[in-house]
fructokinase
Amino acid sequence: MAGCCFPVARKGSFKLVRSTSFGSYKRSRREIHKGPMVVCFGEMMMKLVPSVEGVSLADAAAYKKSPAGATANVAVGISRLGGSATFIGKVGNDEFGHMLSDILKQNGVDNSGLLFDAHARTALAFYSLKSDGEPEFMFYRNPSADMLLYPEEIDVNLVKKATIFHYGSVSLIKEPCRSAHLAAMNVAKMSGCVLSYSPNLALPLWSSAQAAREGILNIWKFADIIKVSVDEIRILCEGDDPYDDIMIMKKLFHNNLKLLLVTEGARGCRYYTKDFKGWVAGFVVEAIDTTGAGDSFLGGFLSIVAAHKYIYKDEKRLREALDFANACGAVTVTGRGAIPSLPTKNTVLRVMFSYFN
């Protein structure tokens, strides 16, 4: 799934040891921070991965479960870093749905916007990284509860409290969730929120690559901040060079956009504003699992933007924030699974301190 993987590279490698239990993290009193709110809108599902690495889904003898959903990952990432985050979406009124709700709560995310559907199941996603490095996906959403969120079910008061309203593109694929997504965006825009968009392109969920391009780009012009990966640019721009600054400014930058971020995998990330552009290197790590690293990057960045809405006007401060975001992504790839590997602020600062010193 393009957009959710962000292995990063920079001199000064490190290793971290952490628990792999995604329900074990609890915020201490010192970590709880009531600051500017980031509301994340989208899907949350249960991902099942083979218990043995490097096998296909068909060859796997057993599977282990892991919480998934890009915008939910971002919400947890922000909370882990000491920020305030709320998640809005829908799961099934089943064991997996209640488990996912508890995971949000355990990680300090406000889950009051998460609804339960009595007539549809929580979405399932089977994922495997085969021995040849090729990812394999299989989704069960026919329909799943996240697709059945209606506009009138959204708590608009939660949206109005946001400093940043963050969203992806999976919620744009089917109705009624698409209309709910657009309605929530409209409330956020009218309330003065910063609109943050990370497509997190999942081609297997769309009917075709063309449908994905049209659906994702249809709301492109409304965002204030967009984060997109190199692989996503190749698809959205139909094979154009994702490193071509002129092409990117012509096709992807728009008059309303304040900041465009392009993640480059091992190289780090690029940034584009109306006044300046540049590149920030990543950090060298021993990558174990890149799942969720892009979401961790974005969670780290938005945790800073929430307190500094006009950071796109200050290049020095922007670069510092992107250093922090790159370090978040670096920490995440040293663990397994997205939510279990999302870092705390102290962990990220230790990584940055060890490198810069």
Notes: Residues 1-25, 27-32 have pLDDT under 50 and may be disordered. The longest strand covers residues 84-92. The CA atoms of residues 30 and 82 lie 9 Å apart. The first helix runs from residue 70 to 80.
